[in-house]
């Protein structure tokens, strides 16, 4: 028995002929860098988000880095972000010489708590970098209000949330700049590295276009220091095909999330992702209720467990994929020693990292497999409850 946590190859296999043909067209065309597929994908992606400008780059990490560069954020500036995250955000902030400042998360959503953002603002704060973690949008109304009051830029990290909606608007278009990753495990993915930066401002857009190609707006005329960070033509050709299926596949993810909620109803010592605001019943024709504030696209299905290690080893022993995203909060990473933030600085992120577990989640996850996952968890959590009672007695 093996149920993976995700399976990127399945999407390729379901569009194999179309993707193979598109790759071959690129190979035969001979136009491998910034060719017609990148240009078309940029406009198709911009149209999908309902946003005027999109620039294809090398990765999600580069998207964040270039976003900061395009806003001229650098040494002496502070950028507020979540400590419960993958290193890419603070890496990008560090790459431009700015300082990451953390704001703790809301334990119910795993996302940065706007109240904590407000408390972290100093005269040096230049931007807020909210991460729509696990596919669920941040509390953007509150974040945008704070940004407005303090004249801060908002750089949305949408790497896990392509297609997620906040009050009927796609994430990435709510703030100043939206950053996306097409790493193979993301909701919209290519077969290698890739990323995108979107914006509504023509000047920012032009800076981004220049930065990604060695700081040259016109070839061999370099106006600023840039870098080599381009989405490549083969990946763009693949992404154009996959973009057409993204909404459908995101609906399948939401459907799997609804199913988990039903299947895990009898488990004990577990908190399911706060999906009441973020998901809806997909049997009712996939239609979100009018009052849906957030629509998560469930990049991960992450639960909080009273006894994570027990559940984790039970799943692993049963051949069921699972992962801890993220085991060490950013402020406790060795690389950020210089920030002098010890244990206890961001207690919610720290507690969450000790009890979170991500379960198998991908559009092609079959009902039979999902039942096995859920039954294994229900059995393990019950066993741990019995064990706990024994101990207590
Ligand atoms: C994956 C990811 C990134 C980095 O994207 P890459 O394309 O791997 O560089 C950034 N932020 C978040 C939230 C991610 O999940």
What can you tell me about this protein's structure?
The chain is α/β, with parallel strands linked by helices. Helix content is 40%, strand content 14%. The protein has helices at residues 8-14, 16-29, 36-49, 60-70, 88-95, 114-120, 140-150, 202-212, 233-243, 246-263, 308-317, 347-355, 367-392, and strands spanning 53-57, 78-81, 99-102, 125-129, 153-157, 165-166, 169-170, 177-181, 195-199, 216-218, 221-222, 270-271, 294-295, 301-305, 356-359. The strands form four sheets. It has a seven-stranded mixed beta sheet, with helices on both faces. It has a three-stranded antiparallel beta sheet with strand order 7-6-13, with no helix packed on it. β4 (125-129), α7 and β5 (153-157) form a beta-alpha-beta unit. The longest helix has 26 residues, at 367-392. 46% of the residues are buried. Residues 276-286 have low confidence and may be disordered. The site of pyridoxal-5'-phosphate has 13 residues, from α4.
Which labels suit this protein?
single chain; 393 residues; alpha/beta; seven-stranded mixed sheet; three-stranded antiparallel sheet; 15 strands; globular; binds pyridoxal-5'-phosphate
Provide the fold topology.
Layout lengths: L7 H7 L1 H14 L6 H14 L3 E5 L2 H11 L7 E4 L6 H8 L3 E4 L11 H7 L4 E5 L10 H11 L2 E5 L7 E2 L2 E2 L6 E5 L13 E5 L2 H11 L3 E3 L2 E2 L10 H11 L2 H18 L6 E2 L22 E2 L5 E5 L2 H10 L29 H9 E4 L7 H26 L1
Pyridoxal-5'-phosphate (PLP) binds next to helix 4.
């Amino acid at each position: 028995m093996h149920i993976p946590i995700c399976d990127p190859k399945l999407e390729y296999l379901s569009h194999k002929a179309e993707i193979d043909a598109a790759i071959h067209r690129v190979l035969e065309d001979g136009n491998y860098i910034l060719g017609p597929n990148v240009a078309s994908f940029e406009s198709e992606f911009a149209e999908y988000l309902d946003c005027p400008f999109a620039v294809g780059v090398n990765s999600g990490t580069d998207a964040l880095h270039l976003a900061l560069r395009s806003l001229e954020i650098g040494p002496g500036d502070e950028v507020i972000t979540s400590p419960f995250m993958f290193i890419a955000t603070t890496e990008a902030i560090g790459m431009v010489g700015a300082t990451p400042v953390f704001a703790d998360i809301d334990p119910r959503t795993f996302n940065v708590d706007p109240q904590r953002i407000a408390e972290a603002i100093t005269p040096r704060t230049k931007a807020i970098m909210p991460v729509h973690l696990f596919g669920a949008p941040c509390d953007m109304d509150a974040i945008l209000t704070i940004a407005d009051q303090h004249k801060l830029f908002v750089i949305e990290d949408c790497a896990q949330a392509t297609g997620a909606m906040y009050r009927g608007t796609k994430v990435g278009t709510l703030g100043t700049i939206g950053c996306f990753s097409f790493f193979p495990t993301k909701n919209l993915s290519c077969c290698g590295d890739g990323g995108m930066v979107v914006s509504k401002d023509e000047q920012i857009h032009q800076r981004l276009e220049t930065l990604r190609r060695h700081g040259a707006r016109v070839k061999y005329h370099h106006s600023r220091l840039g870098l080599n960070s381009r989405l490549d033509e083969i990946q763009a050709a693949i992404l154009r095909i996959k973009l057409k299926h993204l909404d459908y596949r995101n609906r399948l993810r939401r459907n799997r999330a609804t199913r988990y909620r039903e299947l895990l109803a009898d488990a004990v010592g577990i908190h399911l992702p706060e999906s009441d605001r973020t998901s809806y019943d997909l049997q009712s024709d996939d239609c979100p209720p009018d009052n849906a504030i957030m629509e998560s696209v469930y990049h991960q299905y992450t639960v909080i467990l009273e006894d994570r290690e027990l559940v984790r080893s039970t799943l692993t022993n049963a051949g069921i994929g699972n992962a801890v995203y993220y085991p060490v909060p950013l402020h406790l990473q060795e690389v950020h020693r210089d920030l002098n933030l010890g244990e206890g600085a961001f207690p919610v992120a720290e507690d969450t990292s000790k009890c979170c577990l991500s379960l198998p989640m991908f559009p092609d996850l079959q009902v039979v497999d999902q039942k096995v996952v859920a039954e294994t968890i229900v059995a393990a959590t019950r066993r741990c409850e019995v064990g706990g009672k024994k101990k207590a007695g």
